[in-house]
Every structure is written in C-alpha cells, then in structure tokens.
C-alpha cells in the first residue's frame, strides 16, 4: 500500500501489477531491485567531425579532447568513483573503447583506437552506460 510523502513522491516497497494480458495473474517486484539494478547514466554519441550527443540520460555534456578521445560529464554525480562503465562502438573500425584516465564522480574519459593499426580514431556511433550509486 503506497503512502504519499509531503514532497509529492510516492513511497512503496513493492511494485505490483496485473499481468492480465498474458496470464491474468498479479506480478510484483521489490523496488530496491529496480532502483539499484538500472543504469544511472547512459549515452549514444558521435565523435566523427563534431562530437555530439545523439541521446542520453544523466549526461550533461561531452568534451572532444582530440582524435578518439572523449570525456563524458554527468549531470548528477555518482556518490563515489566505484561505479562501472560499459561501452561499445557501432562500427567494426574501432578495436577498443576504453577508460584512459581515473574516473571522477562526474567525468569519465574514453579512448577509441582502430582495429587495424591501433591508432586513435573518431567514430560516428559510440555508446556507454554507467551503473552505481548517485550522490
């Protein structure tokens, strides 16, 4: 049973829904699982010609640090630097998208290198997501 807090949010321990379309039964999930198990930030972006976000959640900006070198700045900081990052590139020309500097609670810096000669490379399709506890 939900309770309404003074600030207008709804507090509840379990999310319960009817799955009538599929089975006609009630389903439930612990809300802490939902909140702790989702990405706290994600983005898709390009670094080819102009570095720009295509779409994002909790990403404030990108910085082009040079060829194949991009920093992602978060809109809301993580509580510490022990969050995780997973990223990939939508083309087969990039061999590696890797973290190249110690992340801070608000910035993660990435490097993309080519698959053929290991040189820095800008790419039109790059993706990343971050998981951890926000501040």
Description:
It is a single chain. The chain has 135 residues and is mostly beta strands. The radius of gyration is 19 Å and the shape is globular. The model has no long low-confidence stretch (mean pLDDT 81).
Give a quick precis of the structure.
This protein is mainly β and 135 residues long. 4% of the residues lie in helices and 49% in strands. The strands form 4 sheets. A 4-stranded antiparallel beta sheet has the order 6-5-12-9, with no helix packed on it. Strands 7-8-11-10 form a 4-stranded antiparallel beta sheet, with no helix packed on it. Strands 1-2 form a two-stranded antiparallel ribbon.
Strand content: over 45%
Anisotropy-based shape: globular
Largest sheet: 4 strands, antiparallel
Task: Give the uncertain stretches in residue-range form.
Answer: none
What value does the average pLDDT take? Answer: 81
What is the first-to-last residue Cα distance? 28 Å
Order of helical and strand elements: EEEEHEEEEEEEE
DSSP, total strands = 12
Rg is: 19 Å
Level of helix content?
under 10%
Spatial sequence of strands, sheet with the most strands: 6-5-12-9
* Count of helical regions: 1
SS content category: mainly beta
């Amino acid at each position: 049973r939900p309770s309404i807090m003074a600030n207008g949010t709804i507090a509840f321990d379990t999310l319960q829904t009817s799955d009538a379309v599929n089975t006609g039964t009630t389903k439930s999930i612990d809300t802490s699982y939902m909140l702790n198990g989702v990405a706290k930030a994600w983005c898709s972006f390009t670094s080819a010609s102009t570095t720009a976000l295509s779409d994002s959640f909790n990403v404030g900006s990108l910085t082009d640090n040079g060829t194949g070198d991009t920093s992602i700045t978060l809109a809301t900081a993580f509580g510490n630097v022990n969050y995780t990052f997973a990223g990939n590139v939508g083309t087969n020309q990039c061999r590696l998208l890797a973290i190249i500097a110690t992340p801070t609670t608000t910035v993660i810096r990435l490097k993309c290198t080519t698959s053929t000669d290991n040189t820095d490379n800008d790419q039109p399709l790059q993706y990343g997501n971050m998981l951890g506890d926000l501040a």
